[in-house]
């Protein structure tokens, strides 16, 4: 069963807001010349862009999957403390007391 356009719109809006809110925490784990936070955010943005690409092609199921991967990278980064999300437990899977 493929997701409706309305559902895709909602998930694009949620993940877009989450990407805009993320602030990479400096000084955390490094991977080559980038911090792990920068790597996680880069992956989230790439999957988000992929979701737009698949949607334009009319492949809403793959678009929806890419959105979920994008948000998974954001949630993982927030849980690991790589991102400062201000304790936002509506956009991220974090404890609201964690800042």
Please write out the topology.
Layout: H1 5-21, E1 23-24, E2 30-31, E3 34-35, H2 36-56, H3 60-79, E4 83-84
Antiparallel strand pairs: 1-4, 2-3
Radius of gyration of CA atoms, rounded to a whole number:
14 Å
Q: What is the annotated CATH architecture? A: Up-down Bundle
Instruction: Give the biggest sheet.
Output: 2 strands, antiparallel
First and last CA, distance: 38 Å
What level of helicity do the residues show? 55-70%
Number of structural domains: 1
Give the strand tally.
4
CATH fold annotation: Substrate Binding Domain Of Dnak, Chain:A, Domain 2
* Secondary-structure class: mainly alpha
Number of helical stretches of at least 4 residues: 3
Kindly estimate the percentage of residues that lie in beta strands according to DSSP: 5-15%
CATH superfamily: AF1782-like
Strand order of the largest sheet: 1-4
Name of the top-level CATH class: Mainly Alpha
- Low-confidence sequence ranges: none
Shape: globular
- What letter string, H or E per element, gives the SSE order? HEEEHHE
Q: What is the mean predicted local confidence, pLDDT?
A: 89
